[in-house]
Amino acid sequence: MAACLTQRAAFRSSRFLPLCLSKARVSYVVLLPELDEDDHAPNSLVLNPKKSFPNFVGITPEKCEHAASRFAVEFENCLGSLEEHLKDQTRGRTFETVVTELDKGWIPLESTWGACKTLCVARSDILPAASYMNIHNWARVAKSKKYNNPILLSAFKEFDEDKSKLTATQARVLRKFLLEGMLNGSGLSTVGKRKLMICAQKLGESKASYELIVQEALGKFVHRIENLDIMHGIPDAILCEMAVNKSEPLIGPWEVTLKPYIYEAFIKHCHDSEIRWNAWFAMVTQSLTAKSTTSAVSLRMEQIRKGRTELARLLGYENFVDMSMQTKMAKNVVEVREMLNELYEPATEQQSRELTVLQTFAGDNSHVGRIDIWDIPYWRRRHYDDMINVPSSSLFPIARVIPNMTRFFGDLFGLKFTLASGRARLWAEDVQLYIVRDETTGEELGGICIDAFVRPGQKLQPFPGASWFIGCQPRNHYGPGLPLANLIFNFGTLDLNLQLEEEREETQLNIEQLEALLEKFGSAVLHVASASPYSEVAGVTNIEWDAAKTVPNFFKLWLREPWFLRLLCRDPATFDPSSSSLSEGIANRLALPHMIGYDLTKELYISNLDLDLYTKSDFWGDIVSDIWPEFFPFELDKMDAHPCGLTEIFSGDWAAAYYSNVWSKVMATDAFKAFEKCGTDWEDPAAQEAYKKTGKRFRDTFLSLGGSIHPSEVFRQFRGRDPSPDALIHELRSNPIYSTPLHEEPET
């Protein structure tokens, strides 16, 4: 369910559907929920296309389903009318008319889909997951028909024969439809399409079976703890989750499970190394203690690898990685490997420095012997807390952070964020709507809703601190609707009775929460600042997978600037630098990245493993044994089966694409380097002018162009050259925390 709510609007392997066999449009029947006569009026629906923003007040599951099913039927009718138009050779056809008609039919459904997704996440008491899934499935089926329609595809192929008449943005829309068609087997014979369908079905079955076995295995592990001392330091929200008796979480006993958020919090805070090892061992073996279960998971993993290879070869590619590269910025896997190899040495060297410092710190604090891999999360947290020397959870008041954040990025990019109370009827009283305008012209560009605070019983929260960016309405050129992005967080500390401890305006954020806020805010700004006239390539849509996180990562990088951290803590009323509640010394320490070599090395390891799994035919265990020693100084346990839990690259969407986050970090860090050259003080007039000049260039490229231009060209327009890993390498090697000489690696 959670995966359905976080899917990006981008090319996905899940689009290999049996629909690729259809020679004609396949109709489907949607039964509309029976509503009162007044409920059929457009203004009672989730979305009124004639208004700027959806109306969330008075919504029921029935109204949501009625709106979505109605727009799904209308889109089906739109496709039918467009088909008849295209089949009539006496009627003219242009790229503009075809895409505009598609947008007219699709936008109401997409906007309603986004509004319902928002309600499911932010007000699950109004729209439960079961009701939302009906809407989600209707929208997915309708969306697949856009890209699997043979008559539409034929028209786009005609447009492709004379691309000289198209703009660069139109050419991107054209490429998207042609590529979607090709990856769904449009170029295959009837027999080939049948084979593709069978292969896709078998692959889907293997992935579902694998996911089920893994989740069942993880659910078997439970370690009961009776001693309260062992639970010392565990965050209250996690303590409540672990307590057997939820009404008395301080009494115990408590149960350690392998739910990711429980496992991660426990292993970071548990001071007993043996108990940490027990939880770690259960996680890396995936609780696959039974030989039959281990064999079943391993078999499914090999079936998935084989199925993806077969799928790729049916479409004319040598392997699944080569097929995956069609939706990436990287030209080919060779270019990806070159980038990963350039980062390997500086990342692993920095990791060695970090582990040496961590070993010394642990030894100075009563740890006996060498730290091992299950000790790292605990001692890393202890070392970070010691380095900061203040409770980082009480440094950033949200009442200052959000207005100062919108003000700064508005000034930087020539935008104006205005808090608009009463402009829209939203889903909760404490949701804030910011109208985004062009600072020079005053033109309204869109809206960003920020739903910041935890609401137990209302918000979906698969784990503490969960957050979402939801593109509720896309930019399009046919109608008056403005782009709308919804940001949903779970900020605020709950006490042991799951009540908010402080008043909402007194809520404090820590660095991790700031990262989540900036990352999601970056996606929202990209969504509303897009200048593309076509929804198919506007904002975050259609950006190649390996470049998709560039803008969100770029926004997070501002936390590396001490002056920016202090700016977030100013009094919003005066914005006076002297009013900041954060001292310069603390800001300097908070801005230092912590153990980035270790983190990057882990990403490089999984990225290389992912590529090897889908380019080589060796058994997955042999591949792991070969490459593990290249990345880590810790011995690989004979029972370690951690790849069995890498659902992202087996049952998920990141097969042959895991490297994408590293690629996006390289681009973001390189882009951010252009701003670092502007100065180190926002208050310096010359520096601020340089910042704004560079910010305008960033807006005119990354933010305005979005997915309407290939990301390579977007980057060249901003930096004047291709991206380079040099900026990220410099960051790795210049961290003063780990400036000690490179020593021997820790013993295993």
TrEMBL record:
Its cofactor is Zn(2+). GO terms for molecular function: metal ion binding; metalloendopeptidase activity. It comes from the Eukaryota. Signal peptide: none annotated. InterPro entries: MetalloPept_cat_dom_sf (IPR024079), Neurolysin/TOP_dom2 (IPR024077), Pept_M3A_M3B (IPR045090), Pept_M3A_M3B_dom (IPR001567). The keyword Protease applies. One of its GO terms (biological process) is proteolysis. Binds 1 zinc ion. Keywords: Hydrolase, Metal-binding, Metalloprotease, Protease, Zinc. It holds the Pfam family Peptidase_M3. Belongs to the peptidase M3 family. This is Uncharacterized protein. It comes from Cyprideis torosa.
